[in-house]
């Protein structure tokens, strides 16, 4: 949760949110221009010619065939066969086939860096929330009358100088700006002036609100709440009794109320990831399996950030919304993915026989800049993605980084990680 500045009304601020379109795919097209305009799938854990891995992202042409993030590559291939295969198979249509490429994080990071430089050139305050996404406080840099031209200037410069396309939303606060940047993707540019916020938000489906995963969305829909407009018209206290503090946030955001101030991002105090089960499970083996995937993701992220940790912890949410955390402190800071897995498994054993809604893994007590101590092989192949959302309502300030597995409820573990 960003700091609140006394006396600063949200209407006084102009916030932009920029998010690159199908970012990894756009990066691939930079170095392989023949892929432009083609259905293109970028797979995490994917190997050329194989069927392993999950979809990190798909170009909009590939999305038209039903390919989406976090889908298994096997499923993507059913919807969109490989071009090369289709070309030799008389039963397949080459026009309805696409290209598959493996993730190359180092390259995407370098493209991201170029985009960041441009964003920083246009705004004094930039909060980078992911590899392809940032909030800008542009109150000092523009006015509502000029906001559209201002945002177009940023968009054009990113496209001209970096070669990828950004969608940008401008609004009086962070949550509305994020929805605005998403509203007309790809190549979107949406400006929501203060007096238009309520009207703009009203038709937005609850799924599109930040922090609402499939599980929450289903609960809301079961209550007849399908849009932000419905949420805004709901009883605040009913939402609070159902979802706790988060319900209050949802209600506020749906009404276009969000006092968070865009603060430049600092170094995190912890790194975490969590993932919900579509249906609470009493199978500790399944919980453990999910937790170990999260543990691997968190350890990799620590390596990428050159962070050592002294504490390894878990979070186990049991129905209805009981949050249990357990942690173990280590004698000294380490970078040891294997140890993270082992500690997580030991801490989880206490929950044998419990039904689990959500599981999370966190490393904390971080120490940075000790690359020499980090294991060398850890530098290979680590991948990083981002999101700030946490469906238990822990807002991410600069002091904590957490993320919710986007494959929540889909039954597949997304291999994505969030910074
Ligand atoms: N990503 C991932 N796994 C996910 C979601 C995303 O690895 N489950 C990666 C690939 C994306 C990048 O993160 O390119 C940015 O995420 P976005 O949600 O912004 O998705 P895209 O940029 O791909 O598409 P959009 O045009 O919807 O922004
Ligand atoms: Mg994007």
TrEMBL record:
Superkingdom? Archaea
- Listed Low complexity bias regions: 380-391
GO terms under cellular component? cytoplasm
Question: At which residues is there a site annotated Substrate discrimination?
Answer: 24
Q: Could you tell me the EC number(s) of this protein?
A: 2.7.7.7
Subcellular locations according to the entry: Cytoplasm
Sequence intervals crossing the membrane? none
Question: What Gene Ontology molecular-function terms does this entry list?
Answer: DNA binding; DNA-directed DNA polymerase activity; magnesium ion binding
Residues annotated as catalytic: 133
Q: Which reaction equations make up its catalytic activity? A: DNA(n) + a 2'-deoxyribonucleoside 5'-triphosphate = DNA(n+1) + diphosphate
User: Segment Disordered: which positions?
Assistant: 379-419
Q: What keywords is this UniProt entry annotated with?
A: Cytoplasm, DNA damage, DNA repair, DNA replication, DNA-binding, DNA-directed DNA polymerase, Magnesium, Metal-binding, Mutator protein, Nucleotidyltransferase, Transferase
Q: Which GO terms describe its biological process?
A: DNA repair; DNA-templated DNA replication
Q: Which HAMAP family match?
A: DNApol_IV
Question: Can you state the subunit structure given in the record?
Answer: Monomer.
**According to its UniProt entry, what is the function of this protein?**
Poorly processive, error-prone DNA polymerase involved in untargeted mutagenesis. Copies undamaged DNA at stalled replication forks, which arise in vivo from mismatched or misaligned primer ends. These misaligned primers can be extended by PolIV. Exhibits no 3'-5' exonuclease (proofreading) activity. May be involved in translesional synthesis.
Family membership: Belongs to the DNA polymerase type-Y family.
- Protein name (record): DNA polymerase IV
Q: Which organism is it from?
A: Halalkalicoccus tibetensis
């Amino acid at each position: 949760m960003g700091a609140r500045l006394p006396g600063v009304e949200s209407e006084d601020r102009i916030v932009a949110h920029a998010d690159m379109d199908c970012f990894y795919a756009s990066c691939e097209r930079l170095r392989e221009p023949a892929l432009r305009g083609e259905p293109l799938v970028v797979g995490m854990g994917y190997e050329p010619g194989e069927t392993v891995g999950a979809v990190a992202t798909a170009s909009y042409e590939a999305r038209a065939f039903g390919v989406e993030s976090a889908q298994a590559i096997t499923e993507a291939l059913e919807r969109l066969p490989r071009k090369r295969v289709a070309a030799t198979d008389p039963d397949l249509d080459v026009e309805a086939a696409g290209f598959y490429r493996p993730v190359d994080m180092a390259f995407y990071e370098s493209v991201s860096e170029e985009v960041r430089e441009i964003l920083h050139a246009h705004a004094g305050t930039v909060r980078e929330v992911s590899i392809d996404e940032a909030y800008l406080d542009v109150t000092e840099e523009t006015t509502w009358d000029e906001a559209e031209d201002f945002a177009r200037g940023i968009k054009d410069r990113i496209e001209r100088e970096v070669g990828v396309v950004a969608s940008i939303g401008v609004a009086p606060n962070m949550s509305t700006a994020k929805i605005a940047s998403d509203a007309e993707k790809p190549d979107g540019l949406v400006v929501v002036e203060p007096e238009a916020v309520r009207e703009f938000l009203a038709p937005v489906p609850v799924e599109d609100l930040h922090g609402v995963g499939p599980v929450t969305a289903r609960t809301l829909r079961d209550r007849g709440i399908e849009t932000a407009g419905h949420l805004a018209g709901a009883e605040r206290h009913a939402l609070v009794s159902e979802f706790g503090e988060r319900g209050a946030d949802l209600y506020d955001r749906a009404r276009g109320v969000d006092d968070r101030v865009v603060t430049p991002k600092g170094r995190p105090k912890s790194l975490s990831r969590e993932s919900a089960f579509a249906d609470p499970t009493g199978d500790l083996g399944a919980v453990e399996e999910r937790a170990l995937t999260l543990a691997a993701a968190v350890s990799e992220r620590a390596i990428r950030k050159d962070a050592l940790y002294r504490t390894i912890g878990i979070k186990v949410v049991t129905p209805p919304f009981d949050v249990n955390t357990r942690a173990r402190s280590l004698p000294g800071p380490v970078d040891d993915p294997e140890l993270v897995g082992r500690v997580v498994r030991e801490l989880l054993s206490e929950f044998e026989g419990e039904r689990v809604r959500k599981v999370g893994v966190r490393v904390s007590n971080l120490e940075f800049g000790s690359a020499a101590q980090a294991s060398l092989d850890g530098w290979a192949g680590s991948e990083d993605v981002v999101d700030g959302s946490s469906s238990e309502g822990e807002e991410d300030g600069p002091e904590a980084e957490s993320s919710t597995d986007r494959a929540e409820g889909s039954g597949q573990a997304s291999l994505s990680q969030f910074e």
